[in-house]
Structures are given as structure tokens and as C-alpha cells.
TrEMBL record:
Biological classification of the source: Bacteria, Bacillati, Bacillota, Bacilli, Bacillales
Superkingdom, natural source: Bacteria
Name of the protein in its database record: Gas vesicle protein
Keywords tagged on the record: Coiled coil, Gas vesicle
Chief place of localization: other
InterPro entries hit by this protein: Gas-vesicle_GvpA-like (IPR000638), GvpA (IPR050530), GvpA-like_CS (IPR018493)
Coiled-coil features, chain-numbered ranges: 70-104
Family per similarity comment: Belongs to the gas vesicle GvpA family.
Subcellular location: Gas vesicle
Length: 110
């Protein structure tokens, strides 16, 4: 009895390397309904790829997610500080306007 080996055998490492190099997309939708009335739709999208391939196709959300990247916290903090500054400026402008209106209305109450 002789054992023959296929010349095109692929190991799990070869398969994973090809998948990560090219990427795989799995997509599906789940719809829940009663009596032809759609109650819930869940869209599932799964992409399996290497980090380099994901970045190449424009997917880098993990870099800006504060739960996954310490760098993202700095970006969020900066954005929050800028928004806080704008809101403070608006508040000051509104308070000045209210003070001006209050002064104008008291002038005519003699």
C-alpha cells in the first residue's frame, strides 16, 4: 500500500495567508416580521482581512475608536475642547445680548 500526496495540498496557514492578503466579505440580512409586517431588520457585514489590506481599502475605524486606541482619546478630547470653547463663546454672546436687552427695557420703565 502506497500513500500518495497531492502536489496542490494547502495547509491552513496557506489558506489564511490568501484570505488575509485578499480579504473576504460576508454579508447577510436578518428580517423578523409577523403577518407580513417587518418588525426588525439586522444587517450583518463581516470583513476578514489583514490590517494592511483593511487600511488599503480605507477601513481604519479602530484607530479613532476611543475604546480600542489610546490615540483616539486625544482626538476626541481635542474635538470636545473645541466644541466646549465654541459653546462658551455662544453663551457669552447670548448673555451680553440679554444684558443689553435688560438695560434697554429698564430705561423705558420710568
Amino acid at each position: 500500500m502506497s500513500v500518495e500526496h497531492s502536489m496542490q495540498s494547502s495547509t491552513i496557514v496557506d489558506v489564511l495567508e490568501k484570505i488575509l492578503d485578499k480579504g473576504v466579505v460576508i454579508a447577510g440580512d436578518i428580517t423578523v416580521g409577523i403577518a407580513d409586517v417587518e418588525l426588525l431588520t439586522i444587517k450583518i457585514r463581516l470583513i476578514v482581512a489583514s490590517v494592511d489590506k483593511a487600511k488599503e481599502i480605507g477601513m481604519d475605524w479602530w484607530e479613532t475608536d476611543p475604546y480600542l486606541s489610546s490615540k483616539a482619546v486625544g482626538n476626541d478630547t481635542k474635538a470636545l475642547e473645541e466644541e466646549n470653547k465654541r459653546l462658551q463663546e455662544r453663551l457669552e454672546a447670548l448673555e451680553k445680548k440679554m444684558d443689553t436687552n435688560r438695560l434697554n427695557s429698564t430705561e423705558f420703565n420710568y
